Amino acid sequence: MVARVGAARPRTGAEGRMRRMRRALSLAILATLLLVGLLAAGLVARTLLPARAPWLSVKAPTAAVRGRPFRIVARLARPEPGSYLTADLHAEDSARRYLGYVAGAPVQRVVPGRRVYSFDIIVPDRGGLSYVEALLYLSKGGDWGSRVSSARLDPVPIQDSLSVVDGLRLRPAAAYPITEGASPSLSYSLPESIPWRIAASLAWAACAALCLAAPRGRRSVPLGIASLLACAWEAVAPAGAISEAFRSLAGVEGWYILRSAPQRFMDGAALAVGICGAILVIRATILSRRTDRGLAWLALCAYAGIAFLVIVSHHGTDALFARPVAGIPAGQAGRLSCAALASAALFIGAAARRRDSGESARP
User: Fold this and answer.
1) pLDDT at 268 over 70
2) pTM: predicted TM-score of the whole model, two decimal places
């Protein structure tokens, strides 16, 4: 019997070992990605429900007025006679850059039997200030260096007049503990690195080229278009401008004081959609041995999630993305990692396919 022309060549032992090694590597990469994804999801979830300072409860307005007093009423859970309670205001500009201490009230000594202490701090009437953030701390000597407990409130917008009367009413305010060694404000003014942004944009461009310039039957047009969009987004970096536009609109329309609940809802929705998308990508690509494209899609999903969370601009996620990592903000480091993962996966996958094609072409 004559063998069929073009029949499949039997696999050698070396080829079988190579395929098993690739599958093991794919599973190892998948396990690592799942672990990293769970850690990232935990960090984002932690920002949605941040810890509250247990040593006090606070009432404060949801807006401030230039040149007018900003009232803070603090209730101590366990007053410690002989200690001191301090309240300060720190400021941010319209781009949410931290400007440091701008005003404070006289230090109050904690006395036996008294739990409630009120502070009236005059908001500075000068340009460049767009938000104020209250900081309270309990200390042994009345100074920051001798503090034993500290907490911060959410930043509130500064108004030019008393038009927002409702925002000046005292309301319960969340007080968040300040981690040791952190600045009083969780905002951080570390600028993004332009060279690394260019590198990330070029990495996404390389991903698009690998997907769109591949031979027919191996192209992935949707992945290529998505990579081009990521390339353009990284080059232009519009997330901050979009977020500021929404913030300005909310301030004009009077929605800003209601922002917290919708922001947390959108952050939680983004996290849920990201997890579901990752599961679908894993089932559709990685488990069907298209690991390179699966990793690229996962990286794109993570990249889109970071961009969306920056636009939503919840204070917790803003603080998380602003923390320095290797000299750049954590948000930029995350986007750069997504670009590096996607480009590396597609390069390795393309090289493996070329090698397999060369081996199959041999007699």
Assistant:
1) no
2) 0.54
